[in-house]
């Protein structure tokens, strides 16, 4: 029979595990950054250039100009509006002004991104997106939470990564959406299409919008859409400061990208900044095989740019986002890089910052590649506008 003294080391060992065990069990998510109300736009950078990335026919002005032109504002309901210019008659070969904003902070693995959206942009030529990107894009990953073009009514989610990450069909019952291409490093990314026809565009708006949420976790990336009348209690009762105890009432995600030997998520995704933008035409909305099936009757030229962007702005009366809030939760382990957290519950981590600088060699190598890719994209973009 063991004596009490021989058990003491065991008891000390168990006691030392206590804090660790309780951290693991408390699957609670606290608000690390809330964007809402009059301060919604405080911690976002505005693009300040024409679309030099995807060939779209837009200028995304800097912050002062975007606000002065009334393309981003807080409306009388206290919601943030982000829109395309619908008051200017644009003459060939000019572009139309729109809005693109990116959070100054980047949020590490363990974060959850939630957006309550009352209205989203739609219409021929319109290409809106709510998405995230790594600090070193594209090699630190991209998560497309809400994206589509023209008259789409079903949301297309995607991951974009450097080579090596793929998305095999998850186990039956693990996601409600429909599988698209599976190689996350190819142009389209590895996509999943929502099966619900109110997950995007005009139907989304007529249904009162809803909540999009994405969990960026070591165990994988999971994306949910809750139509306005199907928002779970945990989100209905959430405030700008309250924690969410568990995701159990969120149900099956629309898209599920579990970490596996096909793609270890933390290997391919570093801390992510959120991006909201509205593009026009460009590589996606303007591609003839995508544009023509929905929008061929839009104008005489059967081309995205001249039949939409050119001319009066009334074409874009519905080309706006209206957000009740965008909110980022952390799991107690997730880091926030850059900016300052309003709630201070997740301190900026010097540990993560130094892990970024230790990957500096890789980053410099890839900068050359990225610059080259951008140059090609810019040339393709100019070509697509001229034609
Ligand atoms: C579009 O934005 C640019 C850059 O801010 C500005 O110079 C231009 O006047 C704007 N165009 C319109 C029609 O407001
Ligand atoms: C949307 O889908 C529902 C069933 O899920 C169907 O009843 C309805 O007709 C569809 N609406 C449109 C506009 O396609
Ligand atoms: C522009 O669109 C908004 C809705 O986004 C609408 O309220 C406004 O009347 C439109 N402006 C013009 C000049 O049509
Ligand atoms: C905690 O964060 C670190 C650094 O981002 C990450 O490597 C690790 O996998 C995370 N652990 C959990 C349980 O989220
Ligand atoms: C595109 O514009 C952004 C914003 O001005 C700038 O930071 C970036 O360097 C530009 N990229 C290219 C390839 O010109």
Q: What would you say about this model in short?
A:
The chain has 387 residues and is an alpha+beta fold. The protein has 10 helices and 21 strands. Pfam families: GH16_XgeA (PF26113).
Q: What are the key terms here?
A:
single chain; 387 residues; alpha+beta; Jelly Rolls; 2 domains; 10 helices; 21 strands; 25% helix; 27% strand; disordered N terminus; binds 2-acetamido-2-deoxy-beta-D-glucopyranose; hydrolase activity, hydrolyzing O-glycosyl compounds; Glycoside hydrolase family 16 protein; signal; ConA-like_dom_sf; hydrolase
Describe, in plain words, how this protein is organized in 3D.
Helices cover 25% and strands 27% of the residues. The strands form four sheets. Strands 1, 5, 6, 10, 16, 17, 18 and 20 form an eight-stranded antiparallel beta sheet that branches. Strands 2-8-19-11-12-13-15-14 form an eight-stranded antiparallel beta sheet. A three-stranded mixed beta sheet has the order 3-4-7, with no helix packed on it. The radius of gyration is 22 Å and the shape is globular. The protein has two domains: 4-23 and 364-386; 30-358, Jelly Rolls (Sandwich). With 387 residues, it is of the alpha+beta class. The chain has helices at residues 4-25, 63-68, 201-206, 233-236, 265-268, 282-285, 288-295, 304-309, 350-358, 360-386; strands at 30-35, 44-46, 49-50, 58-60, 72-74, 80-83, 96-97, 100-103, 106-107, 111-119, 126-134, 142-147, 156-160, 178-179, 190-193, 210-217, 220-227, 255-258, 272-280, 320-330, 336-337. It contains ten helices and 21 strands. The structure holds 2-acetamido-2-deoxy-beta-D-glucopyranose (5 copies). One 2-acetamido-2-deoxy-beta-D-glucopyranose binds at residues 83, 86-87, 314, 317, 320. One 2-acetamido-2-deoxy-beta-D-glucopyranose binds next to loops.
């Amino acid at each position: 029979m063991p004596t009490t003294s021989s058990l003491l080391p065991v008891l000390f060992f168990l006691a030392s595990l206590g804090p660790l065990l309780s951290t693991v069990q408390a699957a609670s998510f606290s608000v690390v950054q809330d964007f809402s109300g009059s301060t919604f736009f405080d911690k976002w950078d505005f693009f300040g250039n024409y679309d030099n990335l995807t060939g779209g026919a837009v200028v995304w002005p800097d912050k002062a100009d975007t606000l002065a032109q009334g393309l981003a504002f807080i409306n009388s309901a206290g919601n943030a509006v982000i829109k395309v210019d619908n008051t200017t008659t644009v003459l060939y070969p000019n572009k139309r002004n729109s809005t693109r904003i990116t959070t100054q902070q980047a949020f590490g693995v363990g974060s959850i991104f939630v957006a309550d959206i009352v209205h989203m942009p739609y219409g021929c030529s319109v290409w809106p997106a709510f998405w995230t990107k790594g600090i070193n894009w594209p090699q630190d990953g991209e998560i497309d939470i809400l994206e589509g073009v023209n008259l789409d009514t079903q949301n297309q989610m995607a991951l974009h990564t450097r080579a090596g990450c793929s998305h095999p069909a998850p186990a039956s019952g693990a996601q409600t959406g429909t599988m698209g291409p599976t190689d996350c490093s190819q142009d389209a990314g590895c996509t999943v299409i929502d099966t619900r026809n109110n997950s995007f565009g005009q139907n989304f708006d007529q249904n009162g919008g809803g909540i999009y949420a994405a969990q960026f976790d070591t165990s994988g990336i999971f994306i949910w859409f809750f139509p306005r009348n199907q928002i779970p209690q945990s989100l209905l009762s959430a405030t700008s400061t309250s924690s969410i105890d568990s995701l159990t009432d969120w149900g099956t995600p629309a898209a599920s990208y579990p970490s596996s030997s096909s793609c270890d998520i933390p290997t391919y995704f570093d801390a992510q900044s959120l991006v909201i933008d509205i593009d026009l035409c460009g590589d996606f909305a303007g591609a003839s095989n995508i544009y023509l099936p929905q929008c061929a009757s839009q104008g005489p030229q059967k081309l995205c740019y001249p039949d939409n962007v050119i001319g009066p702005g009334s074409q874009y009366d519905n080309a706006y986002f209206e957000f009740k809030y965008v909110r980022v939760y952390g799991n107690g382990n997730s880091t926030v890089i850059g900016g300052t957290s309003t709630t201070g519950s997740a301190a900026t981590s010097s540990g993560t910052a130094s892990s970024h600088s230790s990957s500096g060699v890789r980053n410099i190598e890839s900068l050359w590649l990225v610059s080259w890719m951008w140059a090609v994209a810019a040339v393709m973009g100019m070509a697509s506008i001229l034609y």
